Amino acid sequence: MSDEAVCRAGPSLALIKYWGKSVKGDNLPATPSLAVTLGGVYTETRASVVAGMPPLVAGQDSMRVDGAAQDPARYSFFFDTLRHTLGITARFRAASTNTFPTSAGLASSSSGFAALTGACARAAGCEPSSADLSAIARAGSASAARSVFGGFVLLPAGARRARQICGPEHWPDLRIVVAVTHRAPKPVPSRRAMEETRASSPYYFSWIKESAELLPEALRALETRDLELLGETARRSYSLMHGAILGAQPPLLYWLPATVAVIHACAAMRAAGVGAWETIDAGPQVKILCLEKDVEAIVGRVGSLGSGIQTLLCRPGPGLQYGPEYP
């Protein structure tokens, strides 16, 4: 009989963006990233140790996401890193489901690999530290290193693991309104787009430099709970990132008309005294930083734009949680 475990993780929303891998390899980030783990949406992963099979038969690991079988090559480095770090030889069968659109620019790889890490480690009977879980998750997706932790999390450039800066209770009235402008998977996965940006964009190395320079301002804003400073810094970060992506050959534009409409709506709301500070990852979705008092106004304004935009309401959330009964 196979040992089994269930784990949930929230997606990691980068405020200072991660975009680009170190030339040193091993899925190390080229830029520092500061993020908030989202509560209110999550990935849930159920993993089991495969019983009755030779432990090191190639291809024995299997993974499904929202019912669809995944390419084993995408997960092989992750599973090999997991086994090496935990000192085990087990093979795994796992399945994940998301409560939000998958591969659509909502950081599903961050929550997906973090939840997979927690579920596999628990199924194998291991109790690694959060730091080791973070390092394992990073092998699947660098941003997943952050999703292991709750609250506000830093992944330094070149780091093998993330660390929590402060818990979700640090900023209890912070909210994130997610404007879902398109639910389908994005046309170019982030991993491929990062490589194309690094290889061909004349703005890539300026992006690396300026990203590092934004981090101290964001940390200061987080420490003092200064939403305007954090919002402006986050806006600068996503603008620089997408500028570098647009400079790649061929150019890549993830935004849709509805994306641009939400950006303009946020600018109009700020001009009217509503604190709405947008940020955008590699995809068409817009995440709006705000305080609880402004949620109703922001949701109403975004809803009035039409175009089938849906909103999800999130807040700073927890790190890994284990089921089947959750805290």
Description:
The protein has 327 residues and is of the alpha+beta class. Helix content is 37%, strand content 22%. It is built from nine helices and 14 strands. The strands form two sheets. Strands 2, 3, 8, 9, 10, 11, 12 and 13 form an eight-stranded antiparallel β-sheet that branches. A six-stranded mixed β-sheet has the order 6-5-7-4-1-14. The two termini are 27 Å apart.
The level-1 CATH class of the largest domain: Alpha Beta
Distance between the termini: 27 Å
**Would you tell me which CATH topology of the largest domain applies?**
Ribosomal Protein S5, domain 2
Helix and strand pattern: EEEEEEHEHHHEEEHHHHEEHEE
Layout of SSEs?
Layout: E1 4-9, E2 12-16, E3 33-39, E4 43-49, E5 62-65, E6 68-69, H1 72-86, E7 92-98, H2 108-123, H3 130-140, H4 144-147, E8 152-155, E9 163-166, E10 174-180, H5 190-200, H6 204-224, H7 227-246, H8 257-271, E11 277-279, E12 286-291, H9 295-303, E13 310-316, E14 321-322
